[in-house]
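Preliminary data (for renewal application), 6-O-phosphono-beta-D-galactopyranose complex.
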Amino acid sequence: MNITFPENFWWGAATSGPQSEGRFNKKQANVFDYWYEIEPEAFYEQVGPDTASNFYNSYKKDISMMKEIGLNSFRTSIQWSRLIDDFEEGTVNEDGVRFYNAVIDECIAQGIRPVINLVHFDLPAVLQEQYGGWESKHVVDLYVKFATQCFQLFGDRVSDWFTFNEPLVIVDGAYLYQFHYPNLVDGKKAVQVAYNLTLASAKAIAAYRRVNKNKEGKIGTILNLTPSYPATQSPEDQSAAHFANLWMNDMFLDAAVKGSFPKDLVEILKKDNVLWDSTEEETNIINTNRIDVLGVNFYHPHRVKQPSISSDSLAVNWMPNKYFDNYDMPGRRMNVDKGWEIYPQALYDIALNIRDNYDNIPWFVSENGMGVSKEERYLNADGVIEDDYRIQFIQEHLYWVAKGISEGSNCFGYHLWTPIDCWSWKNAYRNRYGLISNNIHTQVKTIKKSGYWFKNVAEENKFIMPDDLI
Ligand code: BGP
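Predicted structure:
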């Protein structure tokens, strides 16, 4: 069966500054650089972000390899801690400016559309230490200074801007479930941070609209959408799923697309005495500065059931899990290396949800992918990794994206995570996601079987779906 895509579809892949560049020539540390300095054992095999995939030094060659595998667009992020020297003043680092100019120009020279994101979990460490990071509205304003610099420096050539990658992961990782520095467990702060990130995004959008002179220019945000499905149709499980969806998806999505937070969520947070501190002026900023485009990162669905813990045990410290438990559905299909369920049909549910409930806003799959350990297992005699599992994973997800598009959802692209195997937050190089492999000892990069397959799909703008996968 032929699966076809609209004209000018974005075929690309995504990475981030902190995961690809390495720390070379960086004056400032981000929270992950800093965390690695003080606690290297928190990272898989004690591998930190110092070299990453060496993009700072090898960007030209890397971009030409991206060209070789047919990418027409590529997302990375500008590291705040590389571009800015003085965070209060917003003054730039000359080498940072040179580097990002060079990356953007090289993409354009190679015919690849540069898609630029501003924060990919990489808050400057000093702002975390001095102000409590995103807990502080002063940091929100410093972020707007950084964003404005980016728009002014690069906005003539970059038309596709994103304010944040996965703000929910900052909330979850740093304030609830302890997988991002500073590893706090503080529900009240988590809620405030969610609000401040939303405010920061809206203020950056306002700044963009003030300074942008590029007629093609668009700005959006990138959200990890994780549809929450109830274990059963019982009212209790359904209400657990309702809350999980409010917290994990609608909170950021409603604010970004509709300009206000979901009423049900606000009521619950108010009742629980954890509602964020906000002003009318801020609410107006959020309301009037909505996104032009949406990036959707999708890896896995979320299965939920009614909570088993009594809410009293959470009375001291509010947690979203007060309202739901995770449900390990028997028989679900898993990527065992990463521990994530594989459920491609969720992308179709997302597509229709955006079509029906979010003004059918233009959106693209900004990340999707499969992390696999020890991929040397799949090396063939020619030294190419035969990652058929990744090809199948992409085919199945694209199938549901195409179905959503054929039913009217306004999806304009698909970006795989990631072009070249890159460093991952705590997991370092344990799981590999790339279309191109990276030997982290030699930095030799080699196209995988999926890279050749992807090139073909990008060039043809279609692929043949194997019958046994439908
Ligand atoms: C997303 C992040 C990426 C990337 C990816 C893979 O949430 O935006 O930065 O890391 O997940 O996950 P991981 O690196 O944890 O395997």
